[in-house]
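User: Assemble these into one structure.

Assistant: Restating your components, then the assembled model:
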Amino acid sequence: MTGIVSIRGLTRVFDVSRPWLNRVIERLPKRFLTAVSDVSLEIEEKTVYALVGESGSGKSTIGKMVVGLLPPSDGSVEIEGINLFTEEDDDKVELVRSDLSMIFQDPYASLNPRWRVRDIIEEPVAAKGKKTAGLAEDLLEKVGLSAADAGKFPHEFSGGQRQRICVARALASEPQLIVCDEPTSALDVSVQAQVLNLMSDLKDDLGLTYLFISHDLTVIQHMADTIGVLYLGRLVEEATPAQLFENPGHPYTQMLLAAAPKMDGYGREVPPPTGEIPDPINPPSGCAYHPRCPLATAQCKAERPELVKHEGRRIACFRPGENALI
Amino acid sequence: MSEPILSVRDLVVEIPTRYGVLRPVDQVNYDIGAGEILGVVGESGAGKSMTGNAVIGLLDRPARITSGEIYLKGQRIDQLPINEMRRLRGKEIGMVFQDPLTSLNPLLRIGEQLEETILAHLDVSASEASDRAVAALEEVGIPAAAERIGSYPHEFSGGMRQRVVIALALCAEPSLIIADEPTTALDVSVQAQIIALLKRLCRERGTGVMLVTHDMGVIAEAADRVAVMYAGRLAELGPVREVLGAPRHPYTEGLMGSTPLASQGKARLHQIPGSMPRLGNLPDGCAFHPRCPYAQDRCREGDTPRLKTLDGRTACWFPVATKAEAAS
């Protein structure tokens, strides 16, 4: 079975070398940063696939490659069976592109301050030369604003309302898949709840699929059907929220869940996690997590674990399911 | 309780503007005891940071304290001349800000920054200052402190940088630390490390901490007592277990309900309709009434409910718990 998105062996390497003249004079080698390393996953239609990880884990890079903003260095992303970078039939590419949309983190930076809301929302459709009469007004009402807001400018709205405008713009081209990159991180909790509820409702009404990127475990748990946990550009665990939160399998997931503040954890004392995310330019050998992992063995140091099926989920670990927190 | 380290009494901060006088902090009262962490929570614009800045005397003009009193260990500090306040700041009150990169000088080695602070506030020799700087770095858990002291801020990761900032706040042995969103810019695992560090230091040294954050989870784990702010006013104040576990103010109740919780699963989140009013356009009566599901006539007009004149816990005419009792 293949889903609406199928990602295979996806890898992205960034060249972070110094300018060539410096390299020549200082005799430095080229330096490469592997942001995403051999990630494979499927996103089923009408589900929410959530990517979670700390900063530098490659969440946003995957999101950008899925919508075609960044070409992959290796591997492929197929949406509805079409690879945006290798497909030669322009019509097919065009068709898939109109099924894709994106919502960004910062609603203050992602709306052009000089454009009226109507123009912002209609742009994805107008750019294709299609008719847009009444479209902005309809969409504004769908996301809980009023049709009269179409003539206003972004600065006249609060953060939550702006994010609603971003959602309306994302819906304009009637997409199937929306990539949401930290859509509520810039919002206060009460407003975050409004936007998350809106996104859930729209998903049910319009049959949307979300690739939901966030670092906030509580938001992920609330929204996701499937969760992929990323560490240093690698997918370390993939499971349903129930599996993941009740019984995290990978030592990194266990650490992440234990470290996340709990609403009912009054005065909770947890042994704080040790170490930090390693340098992605020189990642550790074998399993990237082994320097911080209490279960690490010689095998973890030498070999990189494959993402394999284990009790109804996928884990990249040589000792899956063992408790690393004692 | 012994004498509190910090007492804030009826503090009012005003900003005169062309459109009238705004009150980002409106009659706020609280105490922080020795070794206690007071969490101050609220949404953006609720006046959390403004309260902290008023305490350390770092209000940007034209904002100013127009009434109320601030006492540090019994000494009134809100009217101190600038020089004396400057001596107090750093010595008696340490500060930790949100962004660890902008609160360190990028052109000075961290050792120089620590020594500068120690020499400014403590009567010690230069060599002892540098010993103390190393000790401060060791205390906040920076490995190989003696070597790292010669590093520049950019050579540290985000979490390590925030540790340096905490070391900087602690090195003159203050009795109060104001931590303004100390972990907001950090990852979950690093956040847990920093929170554990703050709690340990607070317990071991008896330092009072004012922890300003918008993250209810951090408050629940770190704070002893919590103050919930809304539109510049205190909405609720009390032990963290009581305030978060059994909120009495409808705003606190709404905040707790809108945080995605493990137990709720896929159910819709509770949402507070609307958004916080602008300071220039506060409604009459209780500032929360347009968004409050329980609002009655008394909330819409007349006096603003105040914590102090009510039970000292909730600034609400009809607290949530009382309603439940009335229904039963």
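The radius of gyration of chain A is 21 Å.
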